[in-house]
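Researcher: Can you fold this with NAP in place?
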Amino acid sequence: MKQYNCCVVGIGAVGAEMVKLLRRRKFPVGKLVVFATRERTEMIDGIPVEVRVAGPGSFKGMDFAFFAGTEGAKGASKTVGWQAVEEGCVVIDNGDDFRMDPRVPLVIPEINPEALRQHQGFIANPNCSTIITLMPLAPLHKAARIRRLIASTYQAVSGTGSAAIKELEAQARAWAAGQPLKAEVYPHQILFNVIPSVGSFKDDSGESTEEIKMRNETHKILDDAAIRVATTTVRVPVFNGHSIAAHVEFEKPLSVEQARELLANAPGVKLVDDPKHAVYPLPINASENYDVLVGRLRKDRSCDNGLVLWCAGDNIWKGAAQNAIQIAEEMVRMGLK
Ligand SMILES: NC(=O)c1ccc[n+]([C@@H]2O[C@H](COP(=O)([O-])OP(=O)(O)OC[C@H]3O[C@@H](n4cnc5c(N)ncnc54)[C@H](OP(=O)(O)O)[C@@H]3O)[C@@H](O)[C@H]2O)c1
């Protein structure tokens, strides 16, 4: 079997899971190289991993580079992303820097794998909340066309990265010890709280960057800019696993029973829907689960052709590392690499 030389750039919350999942999914890795901002050895899944700093020529001889560095001007994707493409490898980027770039396919393999055929060496992974929301919505869109989506997110602290996971844990320990709580990553205490702000507020629209991503990325992935999208993104004191309440209005009628059947057969989606017996998607059950869980399926009585659902998925796995590896798996399957 052909093997592929891979590198992972960034070894925080997403990068570490990327290394773990490449092993667990048995991706045919030849050489594996890990880059971050300084050299050291990290223990990942009980195995020591050498971390290096990328420089000119670092990506030569690599087949895939999975980028999981921070976003923005100093982040890995902007500083060395296109250098990696020039040096001959396919970049699969977890960050936001190039998602809306017309050169860059934005791919969820179960939904729009064909977009990979247009790639120019750089492929973007969508935002974690967008992936988890669209996994159950895409099969419904195919059947009845979504006209309007109102999504409210309940996002875990792991979505902010490793520093936020440590902050929630430190606040829990301080609270149990009767000590004052320190808030450094978030502007407010996250323990026993919810914060209606994910990302940042860059313009005067009142929408956060995370809310804008949900709309723009939904249009690009479903290739339908006519879908009206309104989102409220909220950080909750959950370690891992994002949940979303989605209110969806369709062009054509779609019964709860039809939707249930479509979701039961959708790849990467698991129907978990027996609320009378306390069975519904929970972030705790979605965490470290390859599937996005969907339930609380019901008619939206406030409009014609409306449905409401609740879904939960692992933001670090399906929302980032797993989806990126699935893109590489799909490229190999399609003979694109
Ligand atoms: N967490 C999620 O749920 C999630 C979901 C989807 C997408 N993403 C995206 O995935 C990316 C990584 O997120 P994360 O949560 O893993 O962040 P994180 O825990 O803060 O880790 C960031 C990693 O990036 C490395 N890094 C930063 N700048 C770099 C550069 N110029 N060159 C090489 N490495 C660099 C850091 O290196 P050091 O260790 O040396 O400091 C660190 O290992 C971000 O773009 C994020 O938006 C995250």
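Model: Folded with NAP in place. The first strand starts at residue 4 and ends at 9.
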